Description:
By secondary structure, the chain is an alpha+beta fold. Helices cover 15% and strands 24% of the residues. It has helices spanning 32-35, 48-56, 131-138, and strands at 9-11, 25-27, 43-47, 61-63, 100-107, 114-120, 124-127. Strand 5 and strand 6 form a beta hairpin. The protein is globular, with a radius of gyration of 15 Å. Mean pLDDT is 83; it is low at 83-92.
Amino acid sequence: WIRLGVFLFEMLPKGFLTGVAGSRWQVAAEGAEIIGPVISRRVIRLGLEDCCAALAADHRQVSLAHLPAKLLFDSPGLLEDGAASEATTAHGGQRRHICGGVLLVCEHPSLREVMLPGALTPQLLRLLIENQEAAGLSE
């Protein structure tokens, strides 16, 4: 195969969120910085402290309960229809979010934004990057 250019999207890892994700596509790690400025849906913006916690966490995943409460309300496409006005469901007060690929934007007022592929699972936000990338970004 010959490839000219950069992958912008790719399939979620095999077996990951099968039957749960609204879509099987994710932002490709190599294309996140290119496609990030034009994506307007399924974008999660985190402060530097929360991003560093996700990068340092086991398997690069953090519980949604440990992230800012308004996180899922700040971007279109993260909540089921009608869920933006209904923050909870009858199932123990859980947010009704749509599992699948997201673009994670790490923000800091004095640093350049860093864009990373991620995924929402029923309970977690997971970064879809390799260990080496996570270690490099953590430093």
